[in-house]
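2.7 Reproducibility. Because tokenized structures are sensitive to small changes in the input, we list the exact sequence used for DUF3124 domain-containing protein, including any N-terminal residues retained from the expression construct. No trimming or masking was applied before prediction.
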Amino acid sequence: MPVYSHISHGNLDGRSKPSELLLSSMLSLRNADPSHPITIRAARYYDTDGKMLRDYLTKPLTLAPMGSSELFVEHRDKSGGSGANFVVEWTSDRPVNPPVIETVNAYFFGTQSVAFTSPGRPISPNP
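Resulting structure tokens (single pass, no recycling of outputs):
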């Protein structure tokens, strides 16, 4: 699940670096099954180098049928960098529709605003 702590923009400065815009990110977790709950077991946050920074869940989170929840990365938290990721683990005791998991990355200050979504996609667990 891509997360953008900041995005580069503008022109390169004297050190050949672009300007950076810090963003907040909301991880949206949505159970897309109308009949059965799912359990979110982990929501691990990784930085650009692939180092796990923290697990946002201290205990499993059950989402009711069609229920949702969100986790939030603050605007001032740039520890993840431009290539940050969430890895979300979920389970169900029966076959269900897969959840909809995405981030909403945003910046709203004064007259400037930027907002965009990043869709998640399944990855294989480590053996």
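The chain has a mean pLDDT of 93.
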